[in-house]
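Section: Multi-chain targets

For targets with more than one molecule, the full set of components is provided together so that the structure can be written out for the assembly as a whole rather than chain by chain. Components appear in the order listed by the source. The example entry contains two components.
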Amino acid sequence: MRCFIGIDLGSTTTKAVLLDEDGGMLGRGITNSRSNYQTATTVAKLEAMISARLTLFSRALAQDGTGIADVGAFMAEIERHFRLEQFLDQLDDLERTGAAVIDGERFAGREDAAREALGLIFDRLRGEAPAIYAPGAERKSDFFRDIAGSRYMHIAEDVAKEAGVAFDMLLNIYDKSIIGVENRPPAGAMGERFKRAIDRVLGETSRKLDREALDAAMKSAFGIDIEEANIVGTGYGRVTLPFPKEQIRSEILCHGLGAHVLYPKTRTVLDIGGQDTKAIQIDKDGIVENFQMNDRCAAGCGRYLGYIADEMNIGVHELGPLAMKATKSVRINSTCTVFAGAELRDRLALGEKREDILAGLHRAIILRAMSIISRSGGIENEFTWTGGVANNEAAVKALRILVKENYGDVTINIDPASIYTGALGAATFALREANAKGAQA
Amino acid sequence: MTTKPEKPAVVKEPSMLKQKAMIARNYDKLTSAPETGKKVVSTYVPGNLNELIMCFDMLNNLPEINAIQNGLRKQSGNMIREAEKMGHSEDVCSYVKADIGAMARGAIAPNGKPMPPPDLLLLSYTGCFTFLKWFELLRDEWGCETVMLQVPYDGDGKVTDNMRDYVVKQLKEEVIPAMERISGVKFDIDRLRENLKHSAAAEDDFVWVLQSAMNKPSPIDAYFGGVFYIGPIFTAFRGTEDAVDYYKLLRQEIEERIAQGKGPITPEGEMGEEKYRLVVEGPPNWTHFRDFWKMFYDEGAVVVASTYTKVGGVFDFGFRHDPENPLESLADYCLGCYTNRNLPDRVAMIENYMEAYQADGLLINSIKSCNSFSAGQLLMMREIERRTGKPAAFIETDLVDPRYFSAANIRTRLESYFQMIEQKRRPAGAPTPVAA
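Its structure, encoded as tokens over all components, is:
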């Protein structure tokens, strides 16, 4: 099977999208960009490949008459368990790496205590892992680093007290291990992890499942040879991709085309990424007519929210929900990322509530985006918002209000997976190019 | 230890070497003024009266050019910080701050010798209001005589006899008497006529050079290369035989390029295939000049016409300095500078370039610290898009403040723009062609 890959190397996250020959979505993957675009590309592609196998598996299930009526729900179970299996594999890796760190000189004389404490921590981590991936469990992030990191800290604090070892030492072991672990793709065969995931589903489900039929479907899904027919890269780190120039597209073109693929009536696209805010006008075919973006200052971009979250000592995913609890919106004067912390403390000192300040901050970001939109020519129906910040409900709320105030009732499209829009555009370019080449041949 | 790969040596043609020698000679003349006893006039590029200044054996020192030289030499950043320490805000024109900062650091000319203080500040006001304040600061610093030539703004897009007479009257009654007094040299109109004859001859060849970009491929880059071509005619050389010779030489070089079907020459040698023909509005960035240019020629983008090469005089619509009407033609020259033209005029000029030079699009380089140029640029862009149906794009840099040059951001915008032109060339929705 020929597939077409789009890679979007963002400043914060790296995304990969796999399309089949008909432009159908096969799979998509995302990972932290870290400071290593090479690894980020590998991991994002691997994640997309996993998601493609799940897609193929679900297609096989739908065809093979395994008697599963609700393939979607069943696949969600499989995926949940697959993620758990992968998480456990990565925990093993983290523990092994940590043990190697302990063997180093630094811990001379404390090895036994450290090893024992580490053992305890990982036993507990493994013990609570199924709960993290339980049905309906909310995860603040899908990245191993975020999930494992926050749980490790929590447990290590308890273990340090119980075992009478320094928490700092345990923290140090983690810090020294996590970079290595997140910078290599999860070890072990993907197929094995799938099998174990199916076993887990079979173990806990009340469904009547035919193991043989499932195995057959899996075999057929994994038997398909996925050939990378063409790949196009985009995003902030695009110049680091080992591709020839023809296979690299500007993220502005990719976001424009991606938004067009998702919502063909789109005429105006807003993308708020980690480092850039872009307003793009496209025509009926998804071709860019005009664009504007922020200047060198990343004010009002995703990074701004990152700083605010750091300043408040909460996760970036928690900002939106907290801001939604606001009863009013505090007026924020500056969207300057550098001043963000000062402005925040300033408002707190004046007695404003955190949620009200956050609501104001979200509004300030959108105001800045509105200015860039108007410079690009304003909003034409329909309007599509892409990029990571579009997942933030408080930002969405502020945007809806401001769009209505400025442009009246226009259709606003926000895809839940809008963070993949750039990669989707890149993959679409990859597919179109290959088709053109085929037509020429 | 790894060594940083060296940048390839800059390729220089004879005309470039000649210009370099001319500039070096001029700086030597300026810095040796205390010994030779020559008087120094500071004035600005737009509306500069070089032919007149030469009539009094005075030397012409242009503060913007010094700021540009310091920008190209990557010295301006420190000077700007110096000026900010003195209290000048971040938003102030970076030419001004580079100049003020350079003075605070001892006013060293690019040849490493001290720059003498001016004997006369001659403000020929042609549209940039910052110039007024700049000279006020300089007057405060040097305490020297200041003359302001009030050139009426072409608000209605039409130069009237009244406007011309007003400028001529000031030349006669204020500018020339001040120059006579300071230099001790009596004004000789025939000497001015002689200078203007040289100006007109150089202007003919200069215009020919600019218009050579109508060829396909264009033998020149009329923005990045253009800033070198305007060098002599916009500064202390207009009206000299040196300038006449320079443009003759340049013209010969370009004639040869056309005969050989060659594109522009870049700092890294011959440019590759011409893929995009652009018109550019706004001054270039000087602190990252070569990196900035490289973003264009690496992608096959050549600038075929630019408004920046008109700030020191608009010659390509017929105006020439006229020995028969010396003072009137100086007035017309000042009145016609790009900076003195209203927005509709600027739009009409850009539209003309878009058509005459068969450009693919308009690019605006908006200067962060230049309010004078930036005002109205977005509206100009929209109007050009509407009239020509060709795509336009907007980037932001600065003149000589290196902090405002974000290479990744500019590259993203430029690449997007080039790819956008590429996409728009093909029939609607057609896929991108595959590189062979």
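Residues 14-425 of chain B form one domain.
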